Predict the 3D structure of the following.
Amino acid sequence: MKQLNSIFIIPARKGSKGLLNKNVKNLFNKPLISYSIEYALKIKSKNDLICVTTNDKVVEKIANNYKDIIVIKRPDSFASDNSTMEIVINHALKFFKTKNLLFKSIVLLQPTSPIRKIQDFKNVKKMFRKDIDMVVSVRKGRENPYYLLFEENNFGYLEKSKKISINRRQDAPLVYCLNGSFFMINTKSLEKKSIENFSKIVKVEMPFERSVDIDDELDWDYLNFLIVKKNLLK
């Protein structure tokens, strides 16, 4: 077996429901998935590989237009609404294992979070260590469970998600929201336990304007607005 540094995995299944065909939808005259592919090509080193895992022939065609991109044909059973990202990652790792290739880390780049700077990955890579499970990119949470978020109890009444007496924003601890741009996973950790059982997770914070995760048409329109307003593609 040959061990490489990182495998960059770009997952792009067909059948999105919130926004039809979003992975291949044109964002400023370029398919959405192209942003993540081109970003991965910019940041990869000599001992890294890039793969696109998909069950979408249109995505496959786009990916094949680039050099140094490996396309993994994902079975539909691994591309349903119930398929977890861990299933997708393990499917890709098994594919490379048949090629006698192993990796120290997995970098997941979701195409639905297309606005990234080179420095963002440098920050992620800097935080990655052998003794942690994962580095994730985040933004500061705007809605805080200590005073703004509520849950409905068994009697139909709202209760604070965090049952602590905090009524002012200034008094509440900072909370963070995963923005979907980066997940850098320690392969050794994934071999031992599921991602949901990771406990040693560290963050890299990104600004709100680069933290839009496209799920529906409203997200799409908002990102288009931000790109123009903030000149995000410069």
Remarks:
- The first strand starts at residue 2 and ends at 11.
- The chain is about 25% helix and 25% strand.
- The CA atoms of residues 212 and 224 lie 10 Å apart.
- The mean pLDDT is 95.
